[in-house]
Design a protein that fits this description.
Layout lengths: L17 H26 L5 E3 L3 H7 L4 H10 L4 E3 L2 E3 L1 H42 L1
Helix pairs in contact: 1-2, 1-3, 2-3
Length: 131
Amino acid sequence: MATKSFYFPHDRNVRNNAKVMNLIKHEGMAGYGAYWVIMEYLHAQDGYTALLDSVSYIARLCSSNIRKLKRIVMEYDLFVIEGDTFHSEELIQKMQPFERKFGQTLNQDSNKKETAKSDKTLKTSEKNFFV
């Protein structure tokens, strides 16, 4: 996916969202931090969607327990659960303008780098072959 970067936009006042305030009320700031680890994890996934089974891995990432992470994913209406997957509508909406603006450019840059790397490997192989 073209948008695999280390950046994704989010509002600075997310903690004032009613759903997030409810999360903080029940899970504390550790729950809020876990929410952002989940969002970062989703950002790195194709289609910004993850398997529910990945919650145990995410729990290890943020030094939390699986029950807490499952609660965050399933009980605070912050994520959409479809079958055995989940995603954040907020994240998808936030990424759409970014994808429209930079998606193709990032793909082209990535393809150029891969082509250059491939060409360099080929030239090195040819050089070694003819020595």
